[in-house]
């Protein structure tokens, strides 16, 4: 069973680690306790040992990368295990594009054809699985050959001369040899253009093929701009027919897809960066027993048409709490702290393209059913991209609810220029210990974690804890929300 | 190099060892006065006399039993079981006594016994005189099993067998006795546990025993004319077995064919294949194959006997198939 190696959280405050070196490479056998990589935290450099024995199958983060703690940075498992799903999962956790870490496909840039050499040698990251080798009827020796040379032959038409028509190592060798062209088409073009004899250039591609890079080297030039279509594929190194030709970045990392950092993404990025880097965030978590809330909600919804959601109740609780602790309903503007009169509650909505926060204005003077209605309208508008600026600006406090995704704990970033944001996590049936009549008893209760992030420049621990405890007690005695 | 027959090589080996060590005695059916059924021991009785070269009654179990007894009392006997088919009659003495006495006595007693016997068909000796039963004896821990190929090999291996302090089953091929082979003059021995690469190649490894080595070489010569080069290995000793030579060869060629004259099923071919498979699995381009005598009672009729025993042509065809 393959396991993830995680960026270790070595200290309470450690949020990220910088990988300074990998002491093992992909394919190395690792014993439990072997030092596999080194990280630098803000305090020190540490050698990190493997927690499991096995083969280092995949490195998910390179040297020089900074990775948040507890995220996966490598996979250790058995040599022949299929780890595709693990890799996928890890990459998504790391926020990386698929295959950006692997040495396979690359994105085409303006210069046109992919470096044939790179294509040839950088092939499917996962070694050929046992299933493929059986399907392809590879002899064990052929299988070994494929592994050692990191070939992707799964879509090649190699004729087998082995036992019962199976493919032998020799068959693969011969195929590779016979299908090499002396020059790649682009190399040929460039050579011809510059009146250079392609045959005189030594090739560094597979089987001695002369690549564009080889021609360029021979010409003594660097970038030759050619707007040719996607390169024909070397048979020994197959690229899926749907993907474009690819090139390497200057730093050697192969890019699958380039998306412009503009528009909503950029705005969100800039605002959140600004928030996180200017406001020292302070976090408080408490768990809330929502059993009474659930009951009340049930009753309320049975009694009226407008269905009120759990989130609406939470908004209601927050509004009341903000009225009691107006420090949380403020904003630092320059050298003034403005405490606002109105409670304009923002409800974070996640979209495919990013994040937007529609605001329920003057929520303090609205009944719960009104809040429920309005929030529904705003959320729908947000999802269909129809929010007006007035509807997403002017918030004084934000609530972000990821409970419906099963998230048990998260710490949201404050929506500037607000003073705080409340993160709502999923309700989970949890065993708790209470004291009744002097005896400890274990009960099962539906608990929900809520985390308050505050700007420590204007909010201190004391008022923050009071606020969050107020929210908690309101939710736990939910009738008080409705009065 | 001078050429002598396979039979003469036997006599020479025994002669030299009997001269070297006066404890060496020799016993078997018709081995003395007439010099052996296959004329392999001519002249020995005349030279060493009745006390050291004895004609025995027709009692294989008695022959083997006397061998064991003589061995544990300090002699170095050679006994002959004329046909390996009759080893069955001596099996208790061989498998339960000779093989086990040293161990069971806690090492107090050793059994430096050499049992010579013959294997192979091809001359209409029929069912009870044509079997090659090396698999039977190789299966018993405590016995060494030797299968010489050429006369030169035989002489060196037989001398080693006689000098060995353990029971050795020395299996000569009855069809070889009259053939002439180059045999070096002078004193030489061939150690046990070291297989011999008799021909180098890169497309296929053939591991063979006894006269199958020569047949494999014939096939290899034919294939060489077609530019297919076969590596041929003479196992020499089944016990002790040289695994490494075969593994090294298969790593090079990727294909292995084992040829032995015993019956195919549950025999030498199967065992040799399994001995090496773990170490050569990822080097194989083809499954390990074997050739052996068909799993039938060996017929008398030449027309029926001929097709069931591996020969150079069958080896050629199999090798061709495996190296397509």
Rounded Rg of chain A:
30 Å
Give the tally of β-strands of chain A: 18
Largest sheet of chain B: 7 strands, mixed
Helicity level of chain B:
25-40%
Q: Major sheet of chain A: size, sense and barrel closure?
A: 6 strands, mixed
Q: Determine the fraction of residues in helical runs of chain A and give it as a percent range.
A: 25-40%
Question: Treating each run of at least 4 consecutive H or I residues as one helix, how many helices of chain B?
Answer: 12
- For the largest sheet of chain B, list the strands in their spatial order: 3-2-4-5-7-6-12
**Shape of chain B, please?**
globular
* Helical stretch tally of chain A: 14
Give the rounded overall mean pLDDT of chain B.
97
What class do helices, strands and sheet pairing of chain B give?
Answer: alpha/beta
Q: Largest beta sheet of chain A: what is the strand line-up? A: 9-18-17-16-12-15
Structure in words:
The complex is a heterodimer of chains A (483) and B (324). With 483 residues, chain A is an alpha+beta fold. Chain A has helices spanning 84-94, 116-121, 130-135, 140-148, 169-178, 185-193, 212-219, 263-278, 291-303, 310-324, 368-383, 389-392, 461-476, 479-482, and strands at 3-6, 16-22, 29-30, 35-40, 45-49, 54-59, 66-68, 72-77, 281-289, 330-333, 336-339, 345-347, 349-350, 355-356, 359-360, 397-401, 420-436, 439-455. In chain A, the strands form 5 sheets. Chain A has a 6-stranded mixed sheet with strand order 9-18-17-16-12-15. In chain A, strands 1-8-6-3 form a 4-stranded antiparallel sheet, with helices on one face. In chain A, strands 5-4-2-7 form a 4-stranded antiparallel sheet, with no helix packed on it. In chain A, β4 and β5 form a beta hairpin. The radius of gyration of chain A is 30 Å and the shape is elongated. The two termini of chain A are 56 Å apart. The model of chain A is unreliable at 100-127 and 222-244 (pLDDT under 50). Chain B contains 12 helices and 14 strands. Chain B is an alpha/beta fold and 324 residues long. The A-B interface holds A 139-144, 161-163, 168-170 and B 254, 281-287, 324.
